[in-house]
Amino acid sequence: xxxxxxxxxxxxxxxxxxxxxxxxxxxxxxxxxxxxxxxxxxxxxxxxxxxxxxxxxxxxxxxxxxxxxxxxxxxxxxxxxxxxxxxxxxxxxxxxxxxxxxxxxxxxxxxxxxxxxxxxxxxxxxxxxxxxxxxxxxxxxxxxxxxxxxxxxxxxxxxxxxxxxxxxxxxxxxxxxxxxxxxxxxxxxxxxxxxxxxxxxxxxxxxxxxxxxxxxxxxxxxxxxxxxxxxxxxxxxxxxxxxxxxxxxxxxxxxxxxxxxxxxxxxxxxxxxxxxxxxxxxxxxxxxxxxxxxxxxxxxxxxxxxxxxxxxxxxxxxxxxx
Length: 322
What we know:
Structural class: alpha/beta
Mean pLDDT: 81
Low-confidence stretches: 75-106
Radius of gyration: 20 Å
Number of strands: 10
Helix content: 25-40%
Order of helices and strands: HHHHEHEHEEEEEHEEHEH
Number of helices: 9
Oligomer: single chain
């Protein structure tokens, strides 16, 4: 699909015209990501090209800047009208809009559909199924933990502002708890359900700088103290057992004390991706905001039925909120 010297535009990589609406681009990216993903037998170079094309076209502002870098379209071409399709940006109002928790009509499919399972306790009612945000941060313990409260608030803001414009069926849960063996609690800060995939999201705050990920720890420089991300593996295994109809993944957001989606810089050490180097079952290496969002979008959007809200799975998750 692509290789060295590939001069195709992002639109050509995804196989869409330059006047394609946001919804068509999103669907083309999702199909291309499934087709080229190395886990599905695709080529890593093709997958990187698809990922890069999505970074250039998936965000309205990024697409605007990218379009300015392209040569003018040939004379005589006509753009499609706005009625040709509802854009992903239209499906979710910008941050700060009071009704941002209301889903766009017709943008998602409910399973079971409205009118079915309304009296079944295993199915979440339609009112709550239509809400994009559920739960609240877990209660504070005996000792104050302001850093955790801030991390959770910032992570939730990042997820709520950026995922629904791309994936309208996303349902974000905060403060998830599941009892583990020997009374051990398997608390997870945030979970994101989309279609038949569930992403568990933890976070860690570090000083600004450049870090190396070796598969187990983050380290700043050769003499820097290692920073271990939150352990999500046990919770991932437990939720995979509790929800066999979905695929569970684990992700860690690495943040600094300032709101910057590109920091800190995280590099992977040689061999960090080998299974024997992994200390946990994370789906992707810990990443700063921009990298984390890219991995989440790929994981959730390339799964089966990404436009579906699974009301049975959501019911189980809501019952385990703090």
